[in-house]
């Protein structure tokens, strides 16, 4: 008994040491990936700042706008009417220089671009030039954070629905290869070539314009219901069409890809052996087909999610959904540089978080992936 206890204790210490080593390697791997993704985000945000400011040309536009505003204020100011033209020009020039120095426009753009970079990464972008939040605030951070929940609600709901339905249907089709539904999915796969906003236009035409069953757009009825349940139901009704547009755009290609991958794994010897042992088809699909294919499934879905983020601008604009996509479209139209930069930063953060979790999840679900120092061994 003592020898058995000693052996069990030794095995326990060995398992604990292996677990600790794996945890440290995973932590090191996570930090390295976070740093590399962070560097990518910084570079992307800096390039966005350069492009949004047109290499500093926006400063000249701002100076001209300031000069125009000062000139208009002088025209409506009775206190300067008795001044000579020379005195008015001198005072205008003085006020112009004061405002330029206050905004930092007297410094070279290259130096200010790094200040803009830090402000962009921290979302400390000051006041918007044209836009404001629903509460009337012109602080860029408040404008962005006000729109972020709407975007997360729309895209989170749609992508969770697509992921769950695609896995369940693909698994079922892999066990019913060649059936009517299987052939139907193959025939419908080309529908995924069109973006979600394309289907959104048709859904609005059918269910809103013709049938009048669902709202044209927006997130909630106007005026918003005061009762919480009625408000939630109103949001749900407004979610149906944009979620359906994303569902139609992405579901068929995912089902086809995953069903094909499941079919490949279903022909493996260990799957046939599991079936010969008398295990149920559901258990075989879940344990011997789904589990080894999870790395590919997650990778494929995350890459699709990244591309979907980039298509959110048009879809939210089509459905008048008050999210980041519509905000960015409006900011570009109004040439509101702080809001453009802030929206791009938030999208960059969302993409970076997606890629980061993809790396971590991939390392966790795939036993063939070794992280840390061992991953460099051949």
How would you concisely characterize the structure shown here?
With 378 residues, the chain is mostly helical. The protein has two domains: 59-122, no CATH class; 142-376, Orthogonal Bundle (MetI-like fold), CATH 1.10.3720.10. The protein has helices spanning 2-52, 57-75, 85-103, 109-121, 140-174, 180-188, 196-210, 228-266, 269-276, 281-310, 312-318, 324-334, 337-365.
Which key terms come to mind for this protein?
13 helices, single chain, elongated, disordered C terminus, 378 residues, mainly alpha, 2 domains, MetI-like fold
Give your account of this protein's structure.
With about 375 residues, this protein is an all-alpha fold. About 75% of the residues lie in helices and about 0% in strands. The protein is built from 13 helices and no strands. Helix 2 crosses helix 3. The radius of gyration is 29 Å and the shape is elongated.
Could you tell me how far the N terminus lies from the C terminus, measured between alpha carbons in angstroms? 42 Å
Helix content: over 70%
Total count of strands: 0
Shape descriptor reads elongated
Question: Secondary-structure blueprint of this entry?
Answer:
Blueprint: H1 2-52, H2 57-75, H3 85-103, H4 109-121, H5 140-174, H6 180-188, H7 196-210, H8 228-266, H9 269-276, H10 281-310, H11 312-318, H12 324-334, H13 337-365
Helix pairs in contact: 1-4, 1-13, 2-3, 5-8, 5-10, 5-13, 7-8, 7-11, 8-10, 9-10, 10-13, 11-12, 12-13
């Amino acid at each position: 008994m003592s020898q058995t206890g000693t052996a069990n204790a030794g095995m326990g210490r060995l398992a604990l040491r292996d677990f600790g080593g794996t945890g440290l390697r995973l932590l090191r791997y996570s930090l390295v990936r976070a740093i590399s993704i962070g560097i990518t985000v910084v570079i992307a945000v800096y390039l966005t700042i350069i492009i949004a400011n047109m290499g500093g040309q926006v400063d000249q536009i701002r100076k001209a706008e300031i000069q125009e505003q000062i000139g208009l204020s002088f025209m409506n100011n009775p206190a300067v009417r008795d001044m000579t033209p020379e005195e008015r020009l001198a005072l205008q020039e003085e006020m112009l220089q004061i405002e330029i120095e206050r905004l930092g426009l007297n410094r070279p753009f290259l130096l200010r671009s790094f200040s803009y970079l830090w402000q962009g990464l921290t979302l400390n972008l000051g006041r918007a030039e044209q836009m404001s939040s629903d509460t009337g605030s012109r602080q860029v951070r408040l404008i962005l954070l006000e729109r972020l929940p709407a975007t997360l609600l729309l895209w989170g709901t749609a992508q969770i629905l697509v992921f769950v339905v695609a896995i369940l249907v693909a698994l079922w089709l892999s066990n019913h290869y060649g059936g009517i539904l299987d052939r139907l999915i193959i025939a419908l796969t080309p529908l995924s070539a069109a973006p979600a906003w394309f289907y959104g236009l048709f859904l609005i035409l059918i269910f809103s314009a013709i049938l009048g069953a669902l709202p044209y757009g927006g997130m909630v009825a106007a005026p918003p219901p005061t009762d919480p349940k009625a408000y939630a139901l109103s949001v749900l009704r407004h979610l149906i069409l944009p979620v359906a547009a994303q569902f139609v755009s992405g579901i068929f290609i995912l089902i086809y890809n995953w069903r094909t991958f499941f079919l490949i794994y279903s022909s493996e010897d260990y799957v046939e052996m599991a079936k010969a042992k008398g295990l149920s088809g559901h258990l075989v699909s879940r344990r011997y087909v789904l589990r080894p294919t999870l790395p590919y499934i997650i990778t494929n879905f995350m890459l699709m999610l990244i591309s979907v983020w980039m298509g959110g601008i048009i879809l939210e604009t089509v459905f008048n959904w008050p999210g980041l996509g519509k905000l960015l479209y409006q900011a570009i139209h109004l040439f509101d540089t702080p809001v453009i930069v802030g929206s791009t930063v938030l999208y960059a953060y969302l993409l970076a978080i997606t890629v980061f979790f993809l790396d971590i999840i991939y390392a966790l679900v795939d036993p063939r992936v070794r992280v840390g120092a061992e991953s460099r061994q051949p």
